[in-house]
Amino acid sequence: MMNNLTINFLLLAAGQGQRFGQAVNKLLYKYNGEVIFSRLWRRLTEYIDVYYRNPENFRRRLQQEAEELSYPPTKKAQLLALSAQINLKFRLIIATRKEERELFAPLCYTENPVEICFVDGSFAREATAIQALRSINLPESSVAPVTFTPAEELFFIHDAARLQVSDELLDRLLINAWLYHTAIPMLPLSDSVVYFNAGENNKPEHLDRSRLFALQTPQVFSSAALSYLLSFLPPVTAEHKSFYEHFTDDSSLYAAYGGDIRYVKGEENNFKLTSFSDLERLK
User: Fold this and answer.
1) Hey, what's the signal peptide range on this chain (predicted)?
2) CA–CA dist 58, 17 (Å, integer)
3) Among the four 19, 26, 274, 277, which has the fewest Cβ within 10 Å?
4) Are 152 and 223 in contact (CB under 8 A)?
């Protein structure tokens, strides 16, 4: 019996990109003869294409990833059995500004049987993510997902300015979120960090960097986890703008309502294109 799992890639491409310093959306900027967004699109469609060309190889790759990760023995056995019989369905969801949709649409093509749809962005990152999830009719439920019960649908919520997410990281996130309903990539900070508290005359506080980590995307949640989150959230309207602007990533919003987060190792190469000089780091 095959285990069906739907994989949704929700690409957040509606940002202003003001720090990039160009007159156009940085994702639509052409670099070395190619629109920047096309790099990410090609990366994700190549990942999907591996499954459609040889699903058995894809399944073996997931099994190998499961073998290398630390799980309780009973859960590892369950995961290996599931991976051997996994049947995937993919959907690509692109959140853009309304006026830019016609510029992104020609870039979004694949020969595989993958559903592609566009949704409207909003005034802030988290507002865009939540509006997108509601626009595709994701139901709301106040019941938290049961940990260790395999998910039936996953959402990879990804900042489209992270162009170089690898197969290995995507596999790692898929495997973890499948069993634990969330998977958030993170990296330890290497620089020393100082915190300024304006309430105490802006006196700097040196923080222990060994306990500090930078979060990346894709941040992955099961549909059950997102249904739980949506049941608590206010509508995406101007009235609630300050609420959504307070959160800068999906995991902090989920954790604020008691959701359990599973963190996994991220990648240095999975950096976010922010300034124009970051183009030199692209491979």
Assistant:
1) none
2) 35
3) 277
4) yes
Residue length, the chain?
283
- Distance (Å, rounded) from C-alpha 86 to C-alpha 62? 9
**Model-wide pTM > 0.90:** yes
d(CA 109, CA 93): 12
**Cβ pair 123, 241 in contact under 8 A:** yes
46, 92, 101, 122, 171 from 110: Cα distances, Å: 9, 10, 17, 26, 20
How does DSSP classify residue 112?
S
- Write down the residue that tokens 């790099």 correspond to: 39
Give residue 169's identity as a one-letter amino acid code. L
pLDDT tens sequence across 43-70: 999 999 999 999 999 999 988 888 887 7
For residue range 187-238, list pLDDT tens digits in order.
Answer: 999 888 888 876 666 678 888 888 999 999 999 999 999 999 999 999 999 9
Question: Does 198 reside within a domain?
Answer: no
Residue 57 domain-assigned (yes or no)? yes
199 lies in a domain?
no
**Look-up: residue for tokens 């608590």?**
232
Domain that holds residue 41: 3-193+206-281
Tokens of 75: 């859960």
Residue 223's CATH number = 3.90.550.10
Domain contains 151 = yes
Please tell me the distance from the alpha carbon of residue 146 to that of residue 266, in angstroms, as a whole number: 25
